[in-house]
Amino acid sequence: MSGPGTGERRLAGQSVVVLGGTAGIGLETARRAHEAGADLIVTARDPDRLSRVGRELGARTFAFDLNDADQLARFFTTLPGQVDHVLVSGAGPRYLPFAELDIGTIRHGVERIVLSVQIAQLAKAALRPTGSLLLIGGTGGRRPSAGPLISAVTAALPALVRSLALELAPARVNLIAPGFVDTPLSATLLGDGLDERREQLRATLPIQRVVGPADVAALAVDLMTNTAVTGATFDIDGGQQLVEG
Ligand SMILES: NC(=O)c1ccc[n+]([C@@H]2O[C@H](COP(=O)([O-])OP(=O)(O)OC[C@H]3O[C@@H](n4cnc5c(N)ncnc54)[C@H](OP(=O)(O)O)[C@@H]3O)[C@@H](O)[C@H]2O)c1
User: Fold this and answer.
1) What's the pTM?
2) Whose CA is nearest to atom 11 of ligand 1?
3) Residue 21 CA: which ligand 1 atom is closest?
4) How many domains is the chain partitioned into structurally?
């Protein structure tokens, strides 16, 4: 027996837009939302991967770069009426040493905030009043050693989400803050060091296992369906920030 918002088909009749939904956290959230009965709209840049995911999940798909403000705005105009939930996965900030930051990478880092505000403005018109906007930040940038740019952007996102929750009300706005998640992005960033990193996390994390994209997806769908939660930041890092300096 399951109550409202907890049943297996708890997104039945609802539409979910996943911006950056062909890999990692976005893909697993799209899969979980599909299992929960949602109609899906999935975006990413690579059209081949996008059409594979479209076929797998019966999703409508749109190929464009989230960092292109015009294409992003155009995408929102093509939506078939109001939607229920928007998840922004997709492009994240790059961890670069302070000395290696040039003006382009600094601007790109700050763009994360610009993009989030632009999406929130577009989502305000696109979301049903009962809907939600979900952003993804991270816990890694809370360490000052992550560098000034990532630290500043990471600190800004919870404040941004609290304020957006008022601007978009009664629709809800929340932030998921993962630590290490075992996704294609992590594999690309770590290269040959991936297995060693997984081992290290299994040995040191309080949960004694590595957090995967399905863990984050489960939280994302919970936040879409729990209509009491807004303006909140949810850490999901297996306790990583409790044990790492
Ligand atoms: N993995 C982690 O450990 C971790 C930790 C904390 C936070 N995060 C954040 O979580 C989010 C998702 O990360 P992930 O690990 O799931 O990444 P991922 O495995 O690389 O998947 C990213 C998805 O977004 C799409 N995408 C990437 N850049 C895009 C762009 N500019 N425009 C449109 N679509 C884009 C990708 O497809 P295309 O390449 O075809 O566009 C893919 O579908 C990111 O914001 C990341 O910073 C990840």
Assistant:
1) 0.96
2) 89
3) 43
4) 1
